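Here is one chain, start to finish.
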Amino acid sequence: MPEFQISTATLAMRAYANAAMKGILLPLFICTALQAQAADSDFQAAQRAAQSGNLTALDMYRQQMQDSVLAPYPEYWQLNKDLVLQPADAIRDFADRYPNAAISEKLLGDYIEAKARAGDYASIRQVASRLTNPDSDESCAVAQATATGGDVLALSSLRNDVWLKTGKISDLCSTIADQLLSSPLISDDDRVQRLRTMLRAGLVNRALPVASRLNIPLDASKLASIATSPSIYLASAPIVTLQDQMYYFYALGQLATDNPDAVNDQLTRDQSRLPPATLQYGYRILAMAYATNIMKFGFDQRVVTWFDRSVGMPFSDEEAEAYARTAIRFSQWNSLLRALDAMGIEKQNERIWRYWFARATEQRGDAQGKQVSKTFYTALATDDDYYGLLARDKLGLAFNELPPSYQPSSADYRRMQNDIHFQRAFALRAINADPQYANREWNWAVRQASLKQDDGMILAAADQANKISWFDRAIYAAERTSTLHNDRLRYLTPFRDLTEKYSKQIGLDPAWVYGLIRQESRFVINARSNVGAGGLMQVMPSTARWVAARIGEPFRAAQLGDMDTNIRYGTFYLNHIFGQLGGQAVLATAGYNAGPLRAKRWQPPSSPLAADQYTETIPFLETRDYVKKVMTNAVHYGLIFNQGQQSLSARMGTIAVQNGQEIVGP
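Its structure:
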């Protein structure tokens, strides 16, 4: 173990601190250099001590770093060891000494989750008020703690997040729904809806507690037997009691998993003997089986009819969104309006559904419908996101120049330089610390500045990040201003010579290529995905190997980290699938993300489809959002590259019907 001593870097940091106390503002590059020196000698060593569990060394570094902007970290690592065993007083004391710090928020959140899993809700109640930006799990943990402390209404704020959700849900949030069962705000009708929903989705463990609360005796072994042979059960299923109907719903859901057409036949046979509400929900089960398994069953217009037949039974937001997207796919505008009406108020007010309400209302063709849709489009068009740009096109508004860009003032830079949150972020970046620390500090700094409505400081930080090639954080900051904006920071153009060179060589629009790179990697050269894609254009090794073979050169996996090779291979592959998919940018964008074969399978089989309808009904959420963002980015880059008036609708075009051309390549 090295001798305990105060490093020269820490002494330098103390000099900086003394200067600051005297009102001397050092330039940012000096501040960063001093911070980096201290952090380089102490932060990295402290982190290694934490990783090895050396608490004695951590205590030493805690003393040595007391004047550093990164001073909280050694103590954070000390407390984080055996976190669940720490007393609430220690966590509260840390948070009070480092108020509103990113690392305090992290410690508080992790502590609350650990204590919730241990069932120690009293400790959570002692620290919860200091947590200012909880994530989903932390919110669930705090709600549980508050409820167990006597506030029976504490769980109600999370109702929309958990009550009718059938997808993946964390252990901390899954218990909220069970606790809500006894809430005075939940009616028996609400409980029956949850029971039906969980049985439809085959979630027996979530359904049984609801059935018990409703005094509907559902037997787990009988449900298991039904799951084994649902068609046999349905052949003679009784439907007299509420219990009978729940078994019937479960059987329909299990059969629909593999053979939804058999469910349609079953409902046709049973319609005369089923109560109207039971028949309606039977069609809901059938419609959801298709709508949520498009990759398995494909798009089918009958699904709209089945959803229509289920109207009258309450919808969850999941069900209403599936109904809406199916109606969008087949241009069934009245059905879309019914689906939107079935959504909760919060869901209806999302920009996506306000746009589609305008689209559906516009199809009425009468003066009132046109006026209503115009009102909605006008409200949407105040922003320049995906739906805002589509709305501008609907209104015929030109988008031919960038809005004025705010240039940060010297005062903005001084505030940024003096901001402890940005100081920590830049110090961690300067020593090439683990991105989990640097990015967390950066995101937190932006949030704190946003809460103060200090757009000038945010843009000053974005500009400084851009200057040191911290492109992803520069974009992150520039995207989060509220009144002052700078599109040249939001839509950066690093590596422009190479990107334009290879784009133009093969006839691709550089604005589109930049839009794709921005979404793929945020210009992080060494970006790596969890599936192995790498570099600026996130090229998969298998794709790179295929491209290398096509252009007749050897390939080594390490080449993906070479910027020149990555852009050259990425643009070659993008151009290849662009040609394979009929020169359609939306299809090629979807194909770049999900594979060209999938993009082609999602094309309409018999008549062309508007590109916004195709995009909105892409089965994969990731690809759906990816296409929207890439195409939106391309519009903005079109202005940056002086390509003249831009139209998102024109860029997206129309989706042609599938052709017989075989997809070649990865």
